[in-house]
Amino acid sequence: MTRDTPSTLPGDLRPRTRLVHAGTTRSQYDETSEALYMTSGYVYGSAEEAEAAFAQEGSRYVYSRFRNPTVAMFEDRMADYEGAERAWSTASGMAAVFAALLCQLQAGDRVVAPHALFGSCLHIVKNILPRYGIETTLVDGTDAAQWRHALSRPAKVVLLETPSNPMLDVVDIPLVAELAHAAGARLVVDNVFATPVLQKPLELGADVVVYSATKHIDGQGRCLAGVVLGDAGFADQIGPFLRHTGPVLSPFNAWLLLKGLETLELRVEAQTRAAQEIAEFLETHPRIRRTAYPGLPSHPQYAIARAQMTAGGPLVAFDLDGGKTEAFATLNGLRVIRISNNLGDAKSLLTHPATTTHQRLTEEERARVGISPGSLRLSVGLEHPADLIADLDRALASF
I need a labelling partner for 359 at 20 to 30 A (CA). Which of 85, 110, 258, 341 fits? Predict the structure, then answer.
C-alpha cells in the first residue's frame, strides 16, 4: 500500500490541494478514489502475527471499532487541514462533543461554558455532567468580565462554540484560552459554524476542536459524523475512551466525508459570499428587526470576528417583529429555501430555533441567548444568491 501522507506530499502545497490528497492510502490496485474498506475485522497469517498485532497496538488493523483504513484516511486528512497532530472520528457530532468532554472529566472536576450552546451541548453541561459529580458554571460568552470571574478559580475544561448556534454570538478565543490555561483548564472549541476553512481555533490558543462533520464537512446532507482534533498527548485520554465506549464512524460515512473534503473550501467560500449578500439585504429589509451576521459591521462582536475569522461564515440569523406568526409565515412562503433544522447542506435551509433546535430550553433560557419567537436561522447553500434573496423577499411580503 502507498500513502499520500503529510510527509510525502510536497511541503509547499496549499490547503485546498491538501484537502484533495492528504492522508490517502492506496491498495495494491492504485485506485484513483479512496478505497472503501467495509469490514468489521481482519485476518492474520499466523497465530504469532495475531499475538504481535495486539501486543504492539497500532501496528496494524485488528478491528474496525479500533481503526479502519478508510476512517483513518478521513482522520489524517482532517488533522492535516486543521493543523492538528491527531484526529479521532465519531458516529455523530454530539458523540464527538461528549467524548471530548467525558474522556478528561471525573467527579469533582469543574466545567465552564457559555449559555449560548447548541441545545444538546447545553443539556450535557447542565443536566448530564452534574449527575457524575462534575460542577458546571455558565457565563455570557460575549462578556469578558464573566469569563474572568468564572476562571478565577480552578477548572478542568472550558467548552465554547463560536459563532454560536443559533444567533451567531462570537467568543474571543485567545482571551478565553489564556484565562482557561491560567485556571488549569483545557479549552474545547466547537468550530462547526465557522468551519475549518474560516477559523483555526488551535492557532488561536484552543487545545481541542470538535465538529459535527454532518454539516459542512459532508456538505450534502448524506450522513452523520463527528470529529475531535488535538495534540498527541490528548490521545492518551480520548483514544481509550472511544475504543471502549464504541461511538465508531462507519467506513462508508468516512468515505463520503473524504469526498466532501475535496470540495469543502469551494463550497464554504461560495456559501459565505452569498451569506454576506443575504445579510446585507436582510439588514435593510423593513420587516426585519435585527440581523445577526459576523461579517456585518453592526454585529456586536464584529471586531473579534474580523480578528479570528477570515470571513463571516455561511449562516445568518435574523429576527422578525411579528414573532412566531411572522416567522412561520416566512417559512411557509418559501419556494426555494427548504424548512429544516439541519445546516451546512448544498441546499439552503431555514429553521425556527424556538420551536425546533432550542425548543426544550425554557423561555428564559432562550431569551438569555437572544432567541426570540421571531428568530430564524438561515444556512446558506449553493444556489445563486439572487434567487435566495428573491425567495426571502417574496416570503417576507406574503403576510
Answer: 110
Which of 285, 282, 384 has its CA nearest to residue 337? 384
Residue 2, H or E segment: strand 2-4
pLDDT-based confidence at residue 1 (cuts at 50, 70, 90): low
Question: Range of 111's domain?
Answer: 2-262
Rounded Cα distance between 265 and 172, Å, is: 24
Name the pTM for this structure.
0.96
Give helix 264-283 / helix 385-396 axis angle, nearest 10°.
40
Question: How many other CB atoms are found less than 10 A from the CB of residue 357?
Answer: 20
If one counts the domains in the chain, the total is: 2
Neighbour count for residue 103 (Cβ, 10 Å): 19
Question: Is residue 70 pLDDT above 70, yes or no?
Answer: yes
Q: Which residues pair with 292 in a beta bridge?
A: 317
Q: What are the pLDDT digits (tens) for 74-114?
A: 999 999 999 999 999 999 999 999 999 999 999 999 999 99
Q: What are 254-263's pLDDT values in tens digits?
A: 999 999 999 9
